[in-house]
Amino acid sequence: MSFDVGLDSLLIVAVLVAIVAFFYSNLGLGGGQLYVPIMILFFASFKMKEIVPLSLAFAFVTMISSTYTHNKKHLVHFKIGLQLAAAGLIGVVGGVLFTSSLPDQVVKAAFAAMLVIAATKMLYDLYTARKDYTSCPTEFSLRCRLTGAGVSILTGFLIGSFGIGGGVVSVPLIIYVFKFEPRMAIGTSAFLGAILTPAALFAYWINLGPGVQIHWSIALVLAPVVLVFAILGSTWGLQRLKTKAVKTIFVCGVFLAAAEMIYSVLVT
């Protein structure tokens, strides 16, 4: 089986994506915010059009694992998740076309900007000690549903463009628009990502534009690693981690990824 990368690089990436999966499965995130920079650093010969499909594969495994463990605690709102996914599929198509057609540097710069905005918002909430909701409503207004659908299109676009799970948008969306308590928002976001990430990967597969390549051998080797550590991480996190600790991990991880992406844009 050919991996198109050195064995040493593959092993380093395996260790790092395992760590990311362990923690990010607690956040309703696919981990693409860090999977992408990790692969850019260690799979140096790969372009963004090769890295994004791989990240989608890992993000899907992370999201499905997180959905499974959160659902065991009844922390997934499947009805809202399906409604948001229906709108998000529209954005997925646009995102795939975005990454497939634009130069690497443009995609990297847009990705870095998205990370900075998301992390700054979460940092602001931590600094101002914004109160979390402690319950979930049972009825939702039409305005609430339409707002959710609109932001879900953006979520799908980010997933298709950057190979992430979309939680940087969908978790705040579900908390602020639908007024869910954080853990239910995280579980529902994971379910949403578990639908949209394979849809985006499928879109890349059937629409292999110039420079787009899916390295299935790498995906098949690393995806089981992601699966095991995502299940272990989300199971541990639901038992041990407080909500504030989860948010802090999220903010630090995203800022770290943004810094690495900005560096990558500046030096290439």
Please characterize this protein's 3D structure.
The chain is an all-alpha fold and 268 residues long. It has one domain (7-267). Helices cover 78% and strands 0% of the residues. It is built from ten helices and no strands. The chain has helices at 7-24, 32-42, 48-72, 78-101, 104-127, 142-162, 167-176, 182-206, 216-240, 243-267. α5 runs antiparallel to α10. The longest helix is centred in the first third of the chain and has 25 residues, at 48-72. The chain starts with 6 loop residues before the first helix and ends with a helix. The model has no long low-confidence stretch (mean pLDDT 82).
Oligomer: single chain
Tell me roughly what share of residues is in helical segments. over 70%
How far apart lie the N and C ends? 31 Å
Could you tell me the strand content as a percent range?
Answer: under 5%
Main pleated sheet: none
Order of helices and strands: HHHHHHHHHH
Structural class of the secondary elements? mainly alpha
Number of strands: 0
Could you name the ranges where pLDDT drops below 50 across 5 or more consecutive residues?
A: none
Label the overall shape. globular
Number of domains: 1
Average pLDDT: 82
Radius of gyration: 17 Å
Number of distinct helices: 10
